Amino acid sequence: MKKQLYDIIICEDGVTRGVPVLNGVPQDPSIGWEKEKLKEEQEKEKKLKEEKKKRPKPSIQDRIREQVEVYIGEIEGKVDDFIDSDFKDKYDCYAHLQDMGCKAVHARKMRPLYIDCYNESVDVYNADDDYLNEAWGHLKPKYHKKIMDFYGVIVDDIDRLIKNSTAQRKPRKKKTLSATRLVSKLKYQVEHPDLRLVSVNPEKIIGCNELWVYNTKYNKLGVYYATNSVRGLNVKGCTIQDFDKEASLQKTARKPEDVLKTLTKRTLNKNIKQMKTKEQDVTGRINAQTILLGAF
Question: SS3 string of 2-71?
Fold first, then answer.
């Protein structure tokens, strides 16, 4: 039997080893170690990601609960400091909670705990409960009142924080729909070649103070005046909204080619006043025979 030959070499991974020699070539066991190491790291990273995915994500309520526990721990530390100072330390709970970033949502969850603490201290002060009398018997009665007052200040400050946070909260803004969406279902006549009339973009109706319309079927000139000059007119479906029912009107145009010759705000108001036909109420409805003369 032929004896196995060995040689000492510096392997590819930088480690000096005694390795077997086959056919005059030392056999380096570390060849390809970089690939193996990379593979191991990738598998390890994959496992960590899978574990992270499996780990339940804390809910908003869980996070609030954790923050409340931190705030309570801080307050309890101040209670201990107060007792250790022979009930002489001054404590501004409101400022302390504000500095820590405590919000009304946290304060509401803390309030029941400190209401209970205050009520218990009241029972101790009144000597109503034998069990509490025994538990707090190591303190003089004057200290019973001091601890009661201390918890009373904490409860008052928590209530003040809740009240002030609610008062400072900005009211939720009502979302406003885009003009394009509001007029998307509005049916109107785009053009009237006989009188060379073309409707204005219906999006201009939203927020305008005056809308002038002309019904090509019944030859009626109408105007819608907004109830509120700030909000202006609005549109819902095929109906004009927020118009002044008393001021808005329509009249039959006997000579529409003359009345509608100039479509400015001033001229239209002047012409409709000069028309001798009977004044009628407007309905708010816009249809396929209605030309939108102008929105001002």
Answer: CCCEEEEEECCCCCEEEEEEECCEECCCCCCHHHHHHHHHHHHHHHHHHHHHHCCCCCHHHHHHHHHHHH
Query: Which residues are within 8 A (CB) of 102 and not within 5 positions of it... i.e. 6 or more apart?
Result: 67, 71, 161
Q: Whole-angstrom Cα distance, residue 81 to residue 91?
A: 10
Q: Match 């080893």 to its residue by tokens.
A: 17
8-state DSSP, 243: B
The answer to whether 82 touches 89, Cβ cutoff 8 Å, is yes
What is the C-alpha to C-alpha distance for residues 121 and 112, in angstroms, rounded to an integer?
Answer: 14
Q: What is the pLDDT along the chain (296 residues), one digit of tens a residue?
A: 567 777 787 877 777 887 787 787 777 777 766 667 777 888 888 888 777 777 777 788 889 999 999 999 999 999 999 989 988 889 999 999 999 999 989 999 999 999 999 998 888 888 777 887 787 778 787 888 888 899 999 999 999 888 887 666 666 665 666 888 888 899 999 998 888 888 999 999 998 999 999 999 999 999 999 998 878 899 999 999 999 999 999 999 998 888 888 888 899 999 999 999 999 999 999 999 999 999 99
Letter for the amino acid at 8? I
DSSP assignment, residue 188? -
